[in-house]
Amino acid sequence: MKILVHSCCAPCSVYPLKRLKGHFNDIEFLFYNPNIHPYTEYKLRLDALKQFTKDESLILHIPEEYDLNPFFRAVVFNVTARCHYCYDLRLSSCAKFAQENGFEAFTTTLLYSTYQNHEHIIKLAEKYADQYNLQFYYEDFRQGWQHGIDESIERNMYRQKYCGCLYSEQERFDNRWKKRQIKLLKAQKS
Known about the structure:
The chain is of the alpha/beta class. The protein has helices at residues 11-20, 39-55, 69-75, 82-100, 118-131, 145-154, 166-189; strands at 2-6, 26-30, 59-61, 105-108, 135-136. It is built from 7 helices and 5 strands. A 5-stranded parallel beta sheet has the order 3-2-1-4-5, sandwiched between helices.
């Protein structure tokens, strides 16, 4: 069976690929992530995935030019729903690409992340599997979280520090600021 794997980045692809090799003979990857900001981050992730798929002798499809305007237009007035929109955008595009290019199944490396909403991803993937007459391959790749981290470090892969969009980058810095403030308050009290 031929499967298309939507990949958000190389480090998140390490463990899922290891698992998929046990079930599929024909595995190809798709890099469709119009949420990633800024372009330099997008390019770093794409270059790392290109190297990873080359090292693994896999085909990588890159069906778009960098254009995050549609993503921003869709989420700017509904930031709290941005992840759901982002999942929908990427999974629908992956399923459509899979159907148009002769794949029988698809999955996503989003299922590897301990930070993503698994239930919503599964629900959307099953919806698009039905719509495009495909099989959605589900496996909880989160069990390999540490393995993927360790191997990506060993391979010297670029490792991102936030999910991808401008808002997730802001949350990264907001959380650091909050942690520093808590630390300062504790130090002042002692």
